[in-house]
Design brief:
alpha/beta; Metallo-beta-lactamase, Chain A; 3 domains
Length: 379
């Protein structure tokens, strides 16, 4: 529909200015520059208008498979007369239209587990997908009012083709973790929310619960031992140790963060929320098996996290630190980074590497960060 406006605009405004500017360049450089600058401004209007209307109702990328189905449908419509050749084309196209969804379902079933560490600045957000299943762990946030859900997490979900969420996990009620969740709940149908306590006076937490109740989304207060099997991946809660009814005065919210172990047959990830060094020691005492291929470092890589005892128990091949560029907390701390280096753990940071995506393939990890791809890591 936008082409109804933009094609005439390009044909009768932009192109004449460009052609006139080029033709008059030998006569007057000033006139030529003026006309070309007008054409550039006209192009800018197209981009700005596209941004405005494109953001009114964002949609997920349909993907190559659905595009092929649309083309097959057009072929059927075009070659719908009764000639023998056209009948063959119609039959083949109809078969493809019927077969593609079946093939797509089989393909999705065998898709590997994938962790997307979304770059939300000084905050946390991880999208976990396997096939058509999607879990969002936190959605970042900001103390300045910037809506990471609207401008970062939501667009990322759409780029990945995610239109609904099976589970949203709010690890704890700090704004840099749950500030973006309200927008996500408003725009993406969600089956369930996990929280680390039933009640918190934090405004972001209350807003999240209010939206969940309005939309009829179940909210579950989870603790160690809770589990969920979802589309071939197992999700286990390792922390908090016991279910918390409400936030108590002077409670250490970081220590009570939800810690998750998520795995399938090819990869295993440990997501630490904002749990610090004390929480790491407690996990080592309470759980026999903490081994994981991927470690989401707790508390943005602060001074006391990644204790030697903890790293020796987890034995991660890759560690990811979600952290904001030039943050006022000066994270990640050098001591944390040194401990990761001493244990020969490949470390990625969202402030340097940007978005980090990790998936499994042929008993190896495929890691993508920014424009870099590292294959066959830790075979």
């Amino acid at each position: 529909l936008a082409n109804i406006i933009f094609v005439p605009w390009f044909s009768f405004v932009i192109m004449p200015f460009c052609m006139a500017g080029a033709a008059l360049s030998w006569l007057s450089a000033d006139i030529s520059q003026f006309l070309l600058s007008l054409s550039f401004d006209a192009v800018g209007i197209i981009f700005k208008t596209g941004e405005i209307f494109g953001g009114l109702y964002p949609t997920a990328c349909p993907g190559t498979v659905w595009g092929l189905m649309c083309y097959c449908g057009l072929i059927v419509a075009f070659f719908s007369s009764a000639s023998q050749l056209r009948c063959v084309i119609v039959c083949v196209s109809a078969f493809l239209i019927a077969a593609i969804p079946v093939g797509m379902h089989i393909y999705q079933h065998y898709q590997p587990l994938c962790f997307d560490f979304i770059s939300v600045g000084q905050g946390d957000s991880v999208l976990v997908t396997k096939g058509q299943r999607a879990v969002l762990i936190d959605a970042g946030g900001s103390y300045t009012g910037f809506d990471t859900g609207r401008f970062i997490v939501g667009p990322h979900l759409l780029r990945r083709g995610v239109t609904s969420l099976d589970l949203v996990v709010a690890t704890h009620s700090h704004p840099d973790h749950i500030g973006g969740i309200p927008f996500v709940l408003e725009r993406f149908p969600t089956s369930e929310i996990w929280t680390n306590m039933e009640y918190d006076w934090n405004p972001d937490f209350q807003n999240m619960i209010r939206i969940a109740h309005r939309k009829g989304i179940p909210v579950k207060n989870v603790c160690s031992g809770d589990m969920r099997h979802l589309g071939g991946m197992n999700i286990e809660v390792l922390n908090p140790r016991e279910c918390i009814s409400q936030r108590r005065k002077n409670m250490d919210l970081n220590l009570q963060s939800i810690v998750l172990m998520i795995e399938d047959s090819g990869m295993k990830g440990l997501f630490m929320g904002d749990v610090g060094g004390l929480g790491e020691i407690r996990l080592c005492r309470l759980h026999n098996d903490l081994s994981a291929d991927v470690l989401k470092v707790g508390h943005h890589g602060s001074k006391n996290v990644c204790q030697a005892m903890f790293l020796e128990r987890v034995k991660p091949k890759v560690a990811v630190i979600p952290v904001g560029h030039g943050n006022v907390f000066h994270l990640p701390n050098r001591l944390c980074l040194d401990r990761l280096t001493q244990h020969d753990i490949a470390t990625y940071r969202t402030d340097i590497n940007g978005e980090v995506t990790i998936s499994s393939r042929d008993n190896a990890l495929l890691i993508q960060s920014g424009d870099k791809v590292r294959e066959n890591l830790c075979r």
